[in-house]
Amino acid sequence: MTRIMIVTDAWYPLTNGVVTTLAHTASWLGRFGHEVRVISPLEFDTVSCPTYPEIKLALFPGKSLARQIAAFQPQALHIATEGPLGWSARGCCIRNGLRFTTSYHTQFPQYLRSRLPIPLAASYWAVRRFHDAALHCMVSTPTVERELAARGLRNLVRWRRGVDTELFRPRSKQFLDLPRPLAAYVGRLAVEKNVDAFLQMPWSGSKLIIGDGPERARLERQFPRERFVGYQFGEQLAAHLAAADILVFPSRTDTFGLVNLEAMACGVPVAAFPVTGPIDVIEDGVTGALDSDLARAALRALTIDPARCRERARRSGWDACTREFEGHLVECQPHAAAMHAGGAHVMANAAGAQIPRRLVAQRVAR
Q: Quick check: 113 pLDDT over 70?
């Protein structure tokens, strides 16, 4: 039995690709035989994130988080996000000489820049400081790896994203009775998702918006003819997505865009900008269309063979993706004890063995 702790500032009831990825990963780690403990804002007093009240930030989690780490005694510890919990876990590990891994899920500097006038150089400095302390920083695509390497990160490894091809599968287009062709957007309705680009795009058929967020009220007022259905989950989400003729993914700040794989699994081609995220997920002319003109990309996506999309998605099961995650984990305790120098704890040498890829099974705990 291997005890794995995942610390994340993004967790239920929040709905996004990070939560989906971590939830599936934790579940599959349990199937592989590991005991998993997820530390999330649900266990702390929280405050709403400024400009984004759906996101709950843990208040002063340091001491309580340290106690939980000590009580669980993880054999591997992964920090998934750069929020209050992530920074607190990072600090606790460094003070106690514990080795850990991190992952980069969001283009955090661009996300901040879309909301606040913070220079990208300052944000990337914080990103480097956060992730450089880890043995491995896991990234989802080659493009993200190259971009972060150009910004000075040196501990990067690849961790693909997956899709549930049993849930997300081709279904009847008659599920929705809307004028065709039907273009869908799935995701948060927030400024960094660039949903306006989709809604302003010239289109002769219907537009379906699946999701919610701080921008929904404004978007519904500004685009009253479009169909807003809010968040959908499970079978309902899959049925809405499969009913579309294409998915339009207008974001310029995502590192991956998990919904692109979900759409492809439904046999729905994707139209997107040729930017980080889509450029590594969508094969232009095969599973979708990439173009600096979103309307042009959408029209080209209508000509894509849905069977090719489904074929591509079937190669991205969560089991294979979780095996990659598992293989990048490292032993939490260093071979040499943490040293105390000048009144501050210093981590021992970072060159340690990885956790074995196959270990004996137990259960998943939240």
A: no
Q: Is the peptide bond before 274 cis (omega within 30 degrees of 0)?
A: no
User: What pTM, to 2 d.p., does this model score?
Assistant: 0.83
Q: What is the dihedral of CA 12, 14, 17, 22, to 10 degrees?
A: -20
pLDDT over threshold 60, residue 5: yes
- Residue 70 tokens read as 């000590």
Which architecture does CATH list for 3-162+319-346?
3-Layer(aba) Sandwich (3.40)
Fold of 173-313: Rossmann fold (3.40.50)
What pLDDT does residue 121 have?
A: 85
Average pLDDT over the chain, rounded to an integer: 89
* CB-based contact 312:284 (threshold 8 Å): no
**Residue 31: φ, ψ to 5°:** -65, -30
DSSP string, 8-39: -S--TT--SHHHHHHHHHHHHHHHHT-EEEEE
